[in-house]
Amino acid sequence: MPETPETRSFRLGVAGPVGTGKSSLIATVCRELADELRLGVITNDIYTDEDARLLRSAGVLDPERIRAVETGACPHTAIRDDVTPNLIAVEDLERDFAPLDVVLVESGGDNLTATFSPALVDAQIFVLDVAGGGDVARKGGPGIARADLLIVNKTDLAPYVGVDVEQMVKDAETARDGKPVIALSRTDPASIALLTAWVRSMAHVVRTGDHTPVDPGPMAPHSHVGENGEVITHVHTH
């Protein structure tokens, strides 16, 4: 079935380093909005579908609406350099469950430079967590500075890791020059309400054609370990 305005969903990317709580955030969005919006999820991992299986086991959506892409390479490759596997997965999900309101695409855990191509998603959330350190937000990077929404996650852990959440949020707001920041805990209903209100609002803006996807910018040079254990340093120019 060809893509039409009736079958094209709002595609929302969720990126951030390993362990920041991307899957938990997606589960929260699905749990809160599944009765209101028609949702689907695509997860990304290098060699496994574990995140998809965890979300299915959480019971937040019909399991068939949660699908996995095994990238076989650096997580950022499949969300920025060659988005074809993810784009096919999103379009298949939209076709099978048309019409969907929102498809959330979860990046595999990556570093602070990973961002989604606007060819894949309409908007993107970048996720940090307090356990990663209170200074992370002010270090900047394309996701922190220019994603549509920045989440400072797991704020309930702040007393245990010695992080001043208020200062971390202020640093993030400075780095983002006015773009929205939400301090989130899955145990805090007020912060969850802010997140779901943002998703509703952005879904509406995308549906009405009043939003243009913005490329957060090229990734900085970075390194990763290849399959043979060799350290590879490279830069992405598109």
UniProtKB/TrEMBL annotation:
Which domain of life does the protein's organism represent? Bacteria
Report whether GTP-binding shows up as a keyword of the record: yes
Family membership, please give it: Belongs to the SIMIBI class G3E GTPase family. UreG subfamily.
Q: Where does GTP bind?
A: G16, P17, V18, G19, T20, G21, K22, S23
Domain CobW/HypB/UreG nucleotide-binding, which positions? 13-182
UniProt-listed Pfam families: cobW
State any single GO MF term: GTPase activity
Keywords for this protein = Chaperone, Cytoplasm, GTP-binding, Nickel insertion, Nucleotide-binding
One cellular component term from this protein's GO annotations in UniProt: cytoplasm
What quaternary structure, including any partners, is listed in this protein's UniProt entry? Homodimer. UreD, UreF and UreG form a complex that acts as a GTP-hydrolysis-dependent molecular chaperone, activating the urease apoprotein by helping to assemble the nickel containing metallocenter of UreC. The UreE protein probably delivers the nickel.
Q: Which GO terms describe its biological process?
A: urea catabolic process
Cellular compartment(s)? Cytoplasm
Biological role: Facilitates the functional incorporation of the urease nickel metallocenter. This process requires GTP hydrolysis, probably effectuated by UreG.
What name has this protein been given in UniProt?
Answer: Urease accessory protein UreG
